[in-house]
């Protein structure tokens, strides 16, 4: 018999690839925070409050220079994609209380969304919010702990290894796309992102990823078949 606890544990298990990825990726984030002059509390606060490696990397240098307003604007622009993600995932979470929903929103990231959205959309979960919280519970603490670890061992990580570690994220998303075969819309989104990001970044340096993400998301929303989401 399915219970909220079992669906929570299922989310934890399915988040294992995210956990492994974050255990490497956020070490780089923590190391970059230390190298940029942030203290440990600031580095941990960025991960806990922003929970998005691209936005954190973009904002770290600005915060270290005391440019808090530009850093805030950079975080808002880069994380604007979460508005689209939350709008997509919310109808599949049932009808939780506002407090539980707000608590879970803070742990939404590209990876927790990618791991949760397809099972939620398929309607095979009796307790969808419990599943999503399980994914988040495995991912969020890992990011915080890895940030602290990277900060503390930054001097011991050679630059070439840091560059190698940043390749974990693209590899992770490639494996995710392989898992969603043969869902052509998701595969098309991944391929479009791979092709369009360098072009957009050459036209708008520093904003290529943002522009591509918004364009691909808008295209997917236009092509989304109209259907009533299942709720519990």
TrEMBL record:
Protein name per the record: Predicted branched-chain amino acid permease (Azaleucine resistance)
Coiled coil ranges: none
UniProt-listed Pfam families: AzlC (PF03591)
Family membership noted in the UniProt record: Belongs to the AzlC family.
Keyword Methyltransferase applies: no
Tagged with keyword Metal-binding: no
A cellular component term, taken from the record's GO annotations: plasma membrane
Originating species: Marinobacter segnicrescens
Cell location: Cell membrane
Single Gene Ontology BP annotation: L-valine transmembrane transport
Keyword set, alphabetical order: Cell membrane, Membrane, Transmembrane, Transmembrane helix, Transport
Transmembrane intervals: 15-33, 71-94, 101-119, 131-153, 165-182, 202-223
């Amino acid at each position: 018999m399915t219970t909220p606890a079992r669906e929570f544990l299922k989310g934890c298990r399915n988040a294992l690839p995210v956990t492994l990825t974050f255990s490497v990726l956020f070490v780089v984030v923590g190391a970059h925070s230390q190298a940029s002059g942030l203290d440990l509390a600031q580095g941990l606060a960025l991960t806990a409050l922003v929970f998005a490696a691209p936005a954190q990397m973009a904002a770290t240098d600005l915060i270290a220079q005391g440019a808090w307003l530009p850093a805030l604007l950079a975080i808002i622009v880069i994380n604007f994609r979460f508005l689209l993600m939350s709008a997509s995932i919310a109808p599949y979470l049932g009808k939780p209380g506002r407090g539980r929903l707000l608590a879970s929103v803070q742990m939404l990231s590209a990876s927790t969304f990618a791991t949760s959205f397809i099972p939620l959309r398929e309607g095979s979960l009796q307790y969808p919010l419990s599943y999503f919280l399980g994914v988040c519970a495995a991912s969020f603490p890992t990011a915080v702990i890895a940030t602290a670890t990277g900060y503390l061992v930054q001097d011991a990580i050679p630059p070439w290894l840091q560059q190698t570690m940043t390749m974990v994220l693209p590899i992770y998303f490639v494996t995710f796309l392989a898992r969603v075969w043969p869902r052509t819309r998701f595969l098309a989104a991944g391929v479009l992102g791979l092709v369009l990001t360098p072009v957009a970044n050459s036209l708008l340096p520093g904003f290529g990823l943002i522009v591509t993400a918004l364009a691909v998301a808008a295209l997917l929303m236009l092509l989304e078949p109209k259907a009533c989401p299942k709720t519990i």
